Amino acid sequence: MTGIRDIIFVTGNLNKLKEVQMILAKNESDDDINLINKELDLEEIQELDLKEIALAKCKQAVSMLGPGHAVFVEDTALTFDELNGLPGAFIKWFVKSLGLNKIVKLLDPFENKGATAITTIAYADENGEYHVFQGFTKGRIVESRGPTNFGWDSIFEPFESNGKTYAEMEKLEKNSISHRGRAFDEFKQFLFK
Ligand SMILES: O=P(O)(O)OP(=O)(O)OP(=O)(O)OC[C@H]1O[C@@H](n2cnc3c(O)ncnc32)[C@H](O)[C@@H]1O
Ligand SMILES: [Mg+2]
């Protein structure tokens, strides 16, 4: 499919929105997305299955917006190697209730500080069909370094970043290796295939 398409992104997270706008700003072809942000209060089901969470979020968005729109949501998780998939999607509540320093301390008993950042995108097309895309970035949990304005950016050091935390990286650099950047690579491939 070619041309400009209106796609609604439902999120209340401005940091996320800014990254997604940057990621989608330039396409390889003439195709383009006109990204429309809607801030709807979506309930997040308590689940470990990331695809189920994103799909449930997207279905809620569709029921609030009505049929006929192309709409997507994304849900971002952080899993620790030693905690078998946790905190996963619950990372949001860990950041809110514990704060970054206590999250780092959770891993004190373990030598392995390995973690994986995962973005799951759930997209409902104009015909009401659902599609899911994911991106993964591996790294490790470190003492907080860099600005702390975006979630757990300052305690996650990707293996591909030459020792920088996400928070210490330029946005373009982060997007080029990030969980979000990779999930949107998949999404764009699907949209413009
Ligand atoms: O409205 P939505 O899109 O749901 O936005 P949210 O802030 O609720 O986001 P999530 O449900 O995906 O929760 C993910 C948590 O991880 C944080 N987060 C998301 N992407 C991140 C990134 O790239 N780097 C660091 N923290 C991130 C975010 O601030 C939340 O605390
Ligand atoms: Mg959320």
UniProtKB/TrEMBL annotation:
GO BP, one annotated term: nucleotide metabolic process
Gene Ontology MF annotations: dATP diphosphatase activity; dCTP diphosphatase activity; dGTP diphosphatase activity; dITP diphosphatase activity; dTTP diphosphatase activity; dUTP diphosphatase activity; GTP diphosphatase activity; ITP diphosphatase activity
UniProt-listed Pfam families: Ham1p_like
Necessary cofactors: Mg(2+); Mn(2+)
Cofactor note: Binds 1 divalent metal cation per subunit; can use either Mg(2+) or Mn(2+).
GO cellular component entries: cytoplasm; nucleus
Reactions performed catalytically: ITP + H2O = IMP + diphosphate + H(+); dITP + H2O = dIMP + diphosphate + H(+); XTP + H2O = XMP + diphosphate + H(+)
Compartment(s): Cytoplasm; Nucleus
UniProt-listed InterPro entries: ITPase, ITPase-like_fam, RdgB/HAM1
Binding-site residues for ITP, renumbered to this chain: 11-16, 57, 75-76, 150-153, 174, 179-180
Chain residues that bind Mg(2+): E44, D75
Annotated keywords: Cytoplasm, Hydrolase, Magnesium, Manganese, Metal-binding, Nucleotide metabolism, Nucleotide-binding, Nucleus
Documented EC number(s): 3.6.1.66
Domain of life from the UniProt record: Eukaryota
Summary of the function given for this chain in its UniProt record: Pyrophosphatase that hydrolyzes non-canonical purine nucleotides such as inosine triphosphate (ITP), deoxyinosine triphosphate (dITP) or xanthosine 5'-triphosphate (XTP) to their respective monophosphate derivatives. The enzyme does not distinguish between the deoxy- and ribose forms. Probably excludes non-canonical purines from RNA and DNA precursor pools, thus preventing their incorporation into RNA and DNA and avoiding chromosomal lesions.
Subunit text: Homodimer.
Entry's family note: Belongs to the HAM1 NTPase family.
HAMAP family reported for this sequence: HAM1_NTPase
Official protein name in the record: Inosine triphosphate pyrophosphatase
Underlying gene: KAFR0E00280
